[in-house]
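Running this now, will post back.
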Amino acid sequence: MTKFARLRRSGALPDVIIGVAMVLLAVAMAMAIATIKTSPGYAYVGPRVFPFAVALFLGLVGMGLAISAFLGVDGSGSADFPDTSPGKPSPTMAWVVGGLVANLVGLALLGFVFAAIIQYVMTARGFGSRRWRLDAVCGLALASCAYLLFSEVLKVNIPAGPVLELIHKWII
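Update: finished.
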């Protein structure tokens, strides 16, 4: 039996195909990013750095997925995952989509940081976490770092929300 037939029989062929497609997409992204014009004012970090990092990460994940599927590593034996077979509906998608909707609604009302915390907690809950306080603290740390990076370093206008606006007024 050929390796291709074994991949089809084991059910790993879709993972190999998706992994190879991710690598090809990463190569196409890198080729497109290379055409971005930069001005001589950029010393080291220009408009190509972050897109190249994303393309590199996408390519590495695609290679890892394709290689692990090709070698027969399915990754399902080490962790205790909930049963998501068709007979038992999983609330994961509802929690994740609900988190996205809450982020969209909360962005205007609460601001970026608090909307992102709610989305983080809901997404973590969808993937099985029951420790919402720890998830909220992790979400606060990640959202605060992202907010500071985008608003203060990159000067992107992100809605702060009423709480952060009060904090800005107290500090300044």
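The chain has a mean pLDDT of 80. More later if anyone needs it.
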